[in-house]
Amino acid sequence: MLQEKTVGLGPESLASSGFDVTDTAPPSVRPETKAGQQTVSPQGGRIKRAAIIGNFPPRMCGLATFTRDMYICLSQALPKADWRVIAMNDPNGEYDYPDVVTDQVPQNDPEAYRRLAASLNASETQVLFVQHEFGIYGGPAGSYLIECLERLNMPIVTTLHTVLETPNDDQKRVMSALIRLSSTLVTMAERGAKILREVYKVPETKILVVPHGAPSRPLGDTERFKEVFGVGGQKTLMTFGLLSPNKGIETIIKALPDILDTTPDLTYLIVGATHPHLVASQGEAYRDSLINMARELGVEDHIRFVNRFMDDAELIDILQATDIYVTPYLTETQITSGTLSYALALGRPVVSTPYWHAAEALADGVGVICPFGDSMAFAREISNLLTSDDHRSAMSQRAYDYARPSRWGAVAGTYVARAAADMEMAANAPKPTPNKDYLTRPPSWEAIARMSDDCGIFQHGKFRLADRNHGYCTDDNCRALSLIALQSGWVEGSAARDRLAYAYAGFVNHAWTGERFRNFMDYGRNWLDDGGSDDCCARTFEALIDTVRSSLPDDLRLWAKELAQRVISYIDAWDSQRSRAILIRVLSRALGHVGDNADIRHRIHDLSRLLRNGLTDHANDSHPWFEPALSYDNARLPEALIIAGDVLGNKAMVDDGVAALKWLMTEQTCAKGGHFRPVPTSRFDEGGQTTPLFDQQPLEVQATINACLTAFRVTQDSHWKDEAFRVLAWFHGENDHGVALITDDGGCFDGLTPEGCNHNQGAESLLAYHLSWTAMMANL
Fold first, then answer.
1. Contact criterion met (CB below 8 Å) for 489 and 465
2. pLDDT at residue 685 greater than cutoff 50
3. Which comes out higher in pLDDT, residue 606 or 434?
4. CA 207: distance to chain centroid?
5. Class of domain 223-403
6. What distance in Å separates the CA atoms of residue 433 and residue 728, rounded to the nearest whole number?
7. Quick one: which of 448, 379, 335, 424 has its CA closest to 747?
8. Residue 4's pLDDT is what?
9. Segment 678-698 mean pLDDT
10. Do 698 and 679 touch, CB atoms closer than 8 A?
11. Which residues are CB-neighbours of 534 under 8 A, at least 6 positions away?
């Protein structure tokens, strides 16, 4: 009777399970000390803190076993490293994990993935080993894992347990993200590497082929192991794994009558519990159908079902009691099979269908391949092996020799060396340098023209089309007017652009109610509100000042000055923090053009005091900010403090603004890639309690560029000029998705979503890009 055993994680149990970490290790990790001790490779010595994520026993699946085995071999190869072992919990709940498991992540809790990333970064983990299978992580096709990986500032070595040739849309998005975020992609077969190159266009330098790890035991006689399992004196076949229809067990059961004609003393061992998902939906109906088939064929006495999940030590023993290992799987799309790797490493002759791993591993006489579902072919090949001890012995030796590189020691050495190389590459990666080529050619105005009519610029776009369902808004028309005004002195205009300036100015003029500016108008030119937000009103006032200071036609400048003189009397009522920040910026530019200079300075003083009060109320050493959390248009706040300090001659105020801006830039920088990562709109909705990465929008980029340029102008510190270039590069593809948001006709996509670009082109995005370019040209 088969007895239950447990396998610990100490050195003694490693040896009993076949984990000889010194066996066949490459020179870089092969120990020079006495047997049983493991030295660290020169490369691996740099790895002091590492982590691994995947399923973990007692969860019953092959990936859990693999994750545990990988942890064992890697921790033995790096005995001085601190390890975090992160176990994924399925919706059924938590498990009674061993002490080595330091973290548990509920599969369907996206916030848990974000917390894990923050924790790994805080603990200064140097490398993360990811075991990837689509079914174990939450979200569409496991997309919640990406929520974690996108936030990490360390190399990520991802082992792909499945590489799909024809992924669906969700799977393709997740794979694209894994490819982008991983420093190395490990596949266990050359076929997987081929798919990565041809289907996913992964560069060769990012791919590493490492065989599935396998135990190291001497090639020995099967008979002494057969006695342990009660099959002494018999020939044995074996199939192992969670039982499910795709295993093809029926193919072998149907072959048994013919095999028994030549080898009557035969037992077929079918080892493994039924897959938990199958039990949940069908109970043991599938196993019962196999038993019924065996009974109908008269072979039930030659089959032994071992209906449980075996640990490694017992699996290795029962494999060594096996004369022929059979994997009659029904489909080819399996990149790797752990049980096949184990069988070959123990020198078991294998007869298999040509799924991808088997077709590759069993070539050149290492094993035997039979067509899918062909019971007659299996009967013939199995009988040939069972009736010829010499033939079987020779194949056993070929299998054992073929699998030498898959011994756990060699696998550990390869992973450690690659992880260390990835760390060194990351440490020596050149820092991004400002790309001034982005300013060589002014953006085309074609996109802005197609989004505008004689009323103004449309608010939203549907791809490249103006979306008339959403009409117009003052926010966008005042920005469009500012853009033309700011470019009027140094960019050659045109009659068409002048016509647009009059249209935008007419919209702004009509928006004024006598106290504030209305914002939303439908396509029928009906106002939908009685007055816009404080921010909208402040931005519109800014457009008036920009027009006054411009080289636009005299009548437009006179109109803008007259309206601005009226508006300035009402700005005290606009008291949101961002409207105050915008007003400080606008008033500083109104000096000498609109209003009384002394009055304007007094207003700037009062507004800056109110703004600075936010720092007094909310800032601390770890959060030097004006509010409890970041939200939208964040860079406007420190920029306003820098401007006010400059106008008022208050250096302490300038220093406070610069310090807040430095902190904000750190918050908006990807620690790993160094590229700009604007605070996303989803963070506004969640009150800053979490740190989502998307949606990222151009307006936040524009605000940050303005703030960096202001800091450069006031402090003359070239760091801020470089920062402005780095932020501008976000539009050109130096971002989390590595995709450009701008188009040849001067268009700009509406931002970055978890899936990539939002391909709509609304006015806000178009103008944010054009205003960013204009600000860069005007200040540099």
1. no
2. no
3. 606
4. 17
5. alpha beta
6. 12
7. 448
8. 30
9. 71
10. no
11. 573, 574, 575, 576, 578, 579
Length of the chain: 780
Q: Cβ–Cβ contacts within 10 Å for residue 224, how many?
A: 11
Q: Is the dihedral of CA 405, 409, 415, 417 positive or negative?
A: negative
| CA separation for the pair 242, 3 (Å, rounded) | 18
What span, in angstroms and rounded, lies between the C-alpha atoms of 661 and 653?
A: 12
Residue 609 tokens, joined: 């005091």
Q: Which residues does 411 contact at the CB level (< 8 Å), separation at least 6?
A: 70, 73, 210, 211, 213
pLDDT over 90 (residue 61): no
Strand boundaries in 297-444, DSSP class E: 303-306, 324-327, 350-352, 368-369
Distance between CA atoms of 404 and 410, rounded to whole angstroms? 8
Whether residue 539 has pLDDT greater than 90: yes
Q: Identify the CA nearest to 304 among candidates 325, 317, 290, 316.
A: 290
Distance of CA 340 to the CA centre of its chain: 31
In angstroms, the Cα distances linking 591 to 234, 483, 580 are 100, 20, 17
What is the amino acid identity at position 88?
A: M
Distance (Å, whole) CA 616 – CA 224: 79
Per-residue confidence (pLDDT) for residue 683, from 0 to 100: 56
Check whether 358 has a pLDDT greater than 50.
yes
Nearest to 67 by CA among 334, 417, 312: 312
Q: Collect all residues with Cβ–Cβ distance below 8 Å to 78 and sequence separation of at least 6.
A: 40, 44, 47, 50, 416
> pLDDT value at position 671?
79
Q: How far is CA 412 from CA 23, 27, 28, 76, 215, in A?
A: 11, 12, 11, 9, 12
User: Does residue 8 surpass a pLDDT of 70?
Assistant: no
Two domains, one topology: 11-215+411-427 and 223-403: yes
Answer whether 505's CB lies under 8 Å from 556's CB: yes
Phi/psi for 689 (5° steps) reads: -75, -20
Domain coordinates in residue numbering, the chain: 11-215+411-427, 223-403, 436-779
Burial class (CB in 10 A: 0-12, 13-18, 19+), 444: middle
Report d(CA 107, CA 93) in Å as an integer: 9
Q: Which helix (H) or strand (E) holds 753?
A: strand 752-753
The type of residue at 295 is: R
DSSP letter at 165? S
What CATH number is given for 436-779 in this structure?
Answer: 1.50.10.10
Which CATH code fits 11-215+411-427? 3.40.50.2000
Q: CB 525: neighbour CB atoms within 10 A?
A: 12
Residue ranges of the alpha helices (H) in 151-275? 169-181, 190-198, 223-228, 249-262
Q: Rounded to the nearest 5°, which phi and psi values hold at 466?
A: -70, 130
Distance CA 558, CA 567 (A): 14
Q: Which of 359, 309, 316, 310 is nearest to 334 (CA)?
A: 359
Q: Is the dihedral of CA 286, 287, 292, 294 positive or negative?
A: positive
Evaluate whether 244 touches 371 at the Cβ level (below 8 Å): no
Residue 280's alpha-carbon distances to 272, 285, 307, 627, in angstroms, are 16, 11, 16, 50
**If we measure between CA atoms, which residue out of 338, 335, 256, 339 comes closest to residue 290?**
256
Task: Return the structure tokens found at 459.
Answer: 């608010």
Residue 111: enclosing H or E segment and its boundaries?
A: helix 110-122
Listed range (30-44, 157-171, 241-255, 755-769) with the worst mean pLDDT: 30-44
Q: What is the chain's Cα-based Rg? A: 34
- What count of Cα atoms within 13 Å lies in the side-chain half-sphere of residue 727? 34
pLDDT digits (tens, 9 = 90+) for 191-214: 999 999 999 999 999 999 999 999
